[in-house]
């Protein structure tokens, strides 16, 4: 199958270089934001928020909006990226329990990796809470990586670093399948029938290679939003990394690809226990005293 080239909309969706504040919401969009961001967790409130959110996306017609979300400045372009849509209109629904769990573990020298960082929702919200933590945001899709870097730069956080690569089981280069309707579902595995935006060759690194390059001697927490490649990355990591580098906390999407023994079962065998499960994600914690062998 030939490599597809990005369509014009794909190429035009990179971040606008205008200074922050030059892309304010229109009056109507600002009104929608004021309503959607105040909506509660109730069923009716969520239905209203989602309806108004869809209207807001249509009103914007692909234009970016400068805003503050989850304690950080962000330029968000919600068209074709679910993460940006949620961060702009309904940040209160953006993995609130997962982020609260990680925040409850924060310490002054906390080390956190946000793999599949998109435009920085997790990374920047945690940086706002822990300015001395070391945060590494990894995003493989070049256009989304540009938006991530922009959002890091417009904040005063000096503790967030961005890395443009895919996580895999080894260093090298991989094909990234880009979902035409949601950039956040781009993956090194085909997990959806709607990846028609492009197939791109991107640099890849193993998780252990990343930690060694950053000089990390431990990893307090990692969030994995890598669309079905969790087992590919973690199996290689736990095989090769010393136990001292095993993360205390893992937050990840449910595995989208099952082959043989499930990833969740393998994590339990390594001494991890499930401490949170939401509609989209699961979190595992490993006690520092755990003597489980790799």
What this model shows, in words?
It contains 10 helices and 12 strands. It has 294 residues and is an alpha/beta fold. The chain has a single domain, classed as Rossmann fold (3-Layer(aba) Sandwich), CATH 3.40.50.150. A 7-stranded mixed beta sheet has the order 5-4-3-9-10-12-11, sandwiched between helices. A 3-stranded mixed beta sheet has the order 6-8-7. Strands 1-2 form a two-stranded antiparallel ribbon. Helix 6 (121-129) links the parallel strand 3 (111-115) and strand 4 (134-138). Mean pLDDT is 87; it is low at 1-13.
Secondary-structure blueprint:
Elements: H1 8-12, H2 27-36, H3 43-60, E1 65-69, E2 72-76, H4 82-89, H5 96-104, E3 111-115, H6 121-129, E4 134-138, H7 142-153, E5 160-163, E6 166-168, E7 172-178, E8 198-206, H8 207-214, E9 221-224, H9 230-240, E10 249-253, H10 263-269, E11 272-277, E12 281-286
CATH architecture: 3-Layer(aba) Sandwich
Q: What is the share of helical residues?
A: 25-40%
As residue ranges, the low-confidence spans are 1-13
Q: Looking at this structure, what is the CATH superfamily?
A: Vaccinia Virus protein VP39
Across the major sheet, the strand order is 5-4-3-9-10-12-11
What fold name stands as the CATH topology?
Answer: Rossmann fold
Number of strands: 12
Basic shape? globular
Report the portion of residues in β strands. Answer: 15-25%
**Total tally of structural domains:** 1
* Helix/strand/pairing category: alpha/beta
> What is the makeup of the main sheet?
7 strands, mixed
